[in-house]
Design a protein that fits this description.
The protein is globular. It has 5 helices and 11 strands; from the N terminus they run H-H-E-E-E-E-E-H-E-E-E-E-E-E-H-H. The termini are far apart. The strands form 2 sheets. It has a 6-stranded mixed sheet. The protein is an alpha+beta fold.
Length: about 180
């Protein structure tokens, strides 16, 4: 986990904490660059036809059918309280695993995958307050930009994870 890289646990002998480098997928949401541990990503796809879900949290754009699996898609612009984008050619959906469930993350552009050493990753800034502070576990430098490393577990609160599970379960029941 990235947390082990930002704040290594000397008692844990896990393979991940032993890594000297971490591969991060860098992506844009608005004008800001973010990153996610490549090990958390199943694939990156072009935007699919979304089916809206009634009573879903406002940042859930809808669901897609990806090779027979119904996947909720979270719009990171909405999640990070940024204005909605136009839906350009570079938009992508990052398919990730969160708590054993597959989820899609809508982003404006996937830029690249980069290797970072532990020394290049700093803890998230302490001046960020509120629940948004938990969204990020670290920051690193990419050329002239600072890249915020997303904490996938904290993007959704416990209640929101339950809502997504209900959305996914309900749609799978209908489809099956």
């Amino acid at each position: 986990m990235i947390k082990d890289i930002v704040q290594p646990d000397s008692t844990a002998e896990s393979e991940e904490s032993a890594r000297k480098e971490i591969q991060l997928a860098c992506f844009k949401v608005g004008d800001q660059m973010y990153a996610l541990d490549i090990l958390r990503i199943k694939e990156v796809i072009r935007p699919q036809k979304l089916t809206p879900v009634p009573k879903a949290p406002e940042f859930v754009e809808g669901v897609i059918n990806l090779r027979g699996a119904v996947i909720p898609v979270v719009d990171l612009r909405r999640r990070f309280d940024q204005p909605r984008g136009e839906g350009g050619q570079k938009n992508r959906t990052i398919v990730s695993v969160l708590g054993g469930k597959i989820i899609g993350l809508m982003v404006d552009e996937v830029a690249e995958v980069r290797n970072f050493t532990r020394q290049e990753i700093q803890p998230a800034p302490k001046f960020v307050k509120g629940k948004e502070a938990d969204y990020f576990i670290g920051v690193c430098q990419r050329d002239d930009d600072l890249v915020m490393i997303v904490n996938l577990e904290k993007i959704l609160s416990t209640d929101e994870k339950i809502d997504l599970e209900q959305i996914q379960t309900g749609l799978n029941d209908v489809a099956g």
